[in-house]
Structure formats: structure tokens, C-alpha cells
Amino acid sequence: MTGEGGAAPSATSRARRTVSVPDDAAPLYTVGQAADMLDMQPAFIRRLDSEGVVIPARSSGGQRRYSRTEIDHIAALAGLMSEGMTLTGAQRIIELENEIADLRLQLAHRPAPTTAS
Questions:
Q1: 1 pLDDT band (50/70/90 cuts)?
Q2: CA-CA distance, 78 to 54, in Å (whole number)?
């Protein structure tokens, strides 16, 4: 054996198993886990839910469950707020940035105009 760790099974190995990895929208994280990931207070994250800014899924027991997409959204809000924006202002900036990204995508997929000779 060599030093650290083990070798992963090759692509043709009978021991190889695939693991389903949820997408970024899968609600996997509790408020506490999200707060730890973002290094912020759980109360702030709960406030975003109560104000309708970031509305997480709920477990069968009613606990909030956040996706990676929602955690990224919270991080973006917190970043803007740390620069002096209000929560409402930060949310509006993100909405406008999303609109701009959508418009750019539409323009990128628009057929080029033809010119008559």
C-alpha cells in the first residue's frame, strides 16, 4: 500500500457504484446547517423566510430545508447588505441582475438579422 487514501474503483470495476447526487435545487440543509455554511445567525435566515424573500421547502415535520441555490441567494443578499444596502434594496438588485442575465441569454439565442443586397 502507498501512503494516504485508497484508490477509487476504475470505470470498469465491478465494485464501482454510482451515487445519485441531488441538483442544486434539492432542499437538503436545515437552518442551522445553512447558518454554519454562511457563518451567520439562524435568526437572519428565518427572517428571510418570514419576510418572503427566501422561502425554503419544509420537511414532513415542518422544519425548513434549504437548497444550495437558496443558500447562494442568502449569501448574495448578505454580501449586498454588508455593503450598506437594505434587505429590500439587495433583493431588488438581485432581481434586476437576474432580468439582465435572462435578456442576455435571449439575445444570445436570437437569430442574426439578415441584410438585403
A1: very low
A2: 12
Contacts of 53 (CB under 8 A, 6+ apart): 77, 87, 91
Listed by start position, the domains of the chain span 31-107
Choose the CATH number for 31-107 among 3.90.180.10, 3.40.1280.10, 1.10.1660.10, 1.10.486.10: 1.10.1660.10
Q: Cell 435571449 identifies what position?
A: 106
Other CB atoms closer than 10 Å to residue 85's CB: what's the count?
15
Long-range own/partner contacts, residues 44-50 (CB < 8 A, 24 or more apart): 44/78, 45/74, 48/74, 48/77, 48/87
Q: What is the DSSP letter of 57?
A: E
Contact 57, 27 (CB under 8 A): yes
Partners of residue 65 on adjacent β-strands: 57
Q: Does residue 111 register a pLDDT over 90?
A: no
Across the range 54-73, mean pLDDT stands at 95
Is the whole-model pTM more than 0.85? Answer: no
